[in-house]
Design goal:
With 112 residues, the chain is α+β, with helices and mostly antiparallel strands. The protein is built from 2 helices and 6 strands, in the order H-E-E-E-E-E-E-H.
Length: 112
């Protein structure tokens, strides 16, 4: 994957996640605030003050997640972001982390 391909894919991934969390906030009683600065997306669960940070790491061509449960790195394998340590899929893991922090089931899907 070229640098420009990674940057386009990372941008689309961050846009998808931000839109999905905004939809969760609209569809539920959970107060979720998303803020974006460049390649960093901060998702704050206002009810308990917890946060999830998702960002792209262009030099490594990875997406990173920082949540209550820890920090995780994902690299593109075929058409999915896969955890570099345990092989889990990005959106499944992010859904699990968001569900834990939101206190309700949250399901996120890859828009691509």
């Amino acid at each position: 994957m070229t640098d420009s391909e990674f940057l386009a894919l990372a941008e689309a991934t961050l846009d998808n996640i931000e839109g999905a969390f905004e939809q969760v906030a609209e569809d539920t009683d959970v107060d979720i605030e998303c803020s974006r600065s460049g390649n960093v997306l901060q998702i704050e669960f206002a009810d308990n003050g917890s946060k999830i940070i998702v960002n792209s790491q262009a030099p490594m061509k990875e997406m990173w997640i920082a949540a209550r449960s820890g920090g995780f790195h994902y690299r593109r394998v075929d058409d999915r972001w896969i955890n570099t340590r345990d092989g889990s899929e990005f959106y499944e893991a992010l859904s699990r982390m968001a569900s834990e922090q939101a206190g309700i089931p949250v399901t996120l899907k890859d828009a691509g």
